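Predict structure. Input: mannose-1-phosphate guanylyltransferase, 357 residues.
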Amino acid sequence: MTSNNFLIIMAGGVGTRFWPFSRQTFPKQFHDILGTGRTLIQQTADRFVGICPNENIYVVTSPEYFEITKTQLPFLTDDQILLEPSRRNTAPCIAYASYKIAKQNANAQIVVAPADHIILKEEEFRNRINLALDFSSKYDVLVTLGIKPTRPDTGYGYIQFDDTDVNEVKKVRTFTEKPNLELAEMFLASGDYVWNGGIFVWSLQSITKAFDSHLPEVADAFRIAQKHFYTDKEKEALDTAYPRCRSISIDNGVMEKAENVYVVLSDIGWSDLGTWKSVYENSEKDEVNNVIDGKAMLFNVEDCIIKTPKDKLVVINDLKGYIVAEFDGVLMICKKDDEQKVKEFVSKAEAYGKQFV
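Output follows.
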């Protein structure tokens, strides 16, 4: 571990597709979704023990999540919890944290990780991160972890790499964002595509140079604001900087345009836990493939995920392939195959009161 290693945890999202557990007031990164005893954001920080010192961890989130972030990661100082005045996707989020780190350490090596992913093979994950850190410390590169695909999933972005490259860190050829099923099947069959896991590694110099080249308005906004970071004028500076930034992901704004992008192929037991189906796939199941988190009496129930309050007994009869989820005043019963309708449910639930979304 070196004092030059920094971690940026992106924790500002709401995770609508995991409603009713993920809410505006309590999004999924602050839940212990898989019953491990640690929330997703705590698990994210835990993975970097031995790689990054606690004082070099920065969490970018929304003002309404300051207290819960402080509670769940009590080692953070107030200056390590970065509060975005508005959501502008991942590029401004990463820029804010990067320019703040720059005031502390011009030689920083940075890992960017979402707060809501799970990684089952944690030792291999650390090996992959250390490999990427070593590579990015030697060259002007932007590195991403490419996840070995297990199915032709249309919900992920795909990275094509140079399969003639014999090195462990491979040159990226193309990015394709969320292809249709036919393309996804072709990508899987070709063997030279991996999922974009949204985990990035680079030097401070490389990422600020990339912002200058590809998102100059973002670079200018945060360079102006930077002189007020770590002062009582930081919030005011951010309120000026953020409206100057369009809402754009780091993938679209930088990675797809840059010529110096590399990928570390990674088989790390990764999932973004973005949907109920992904939670189902990553949870232990009973003998008839039910995932149960709560007190449940089941009769002729198969292939279901049941997540309900611990103090409530739920009785279910004759159900197959459903999500049964209750949290904080909302009960949702939905076919697993219809989980894409959850966003629609959320938009309509607001009519019953903001407390339900």
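The longest strand covers residues 193-203.
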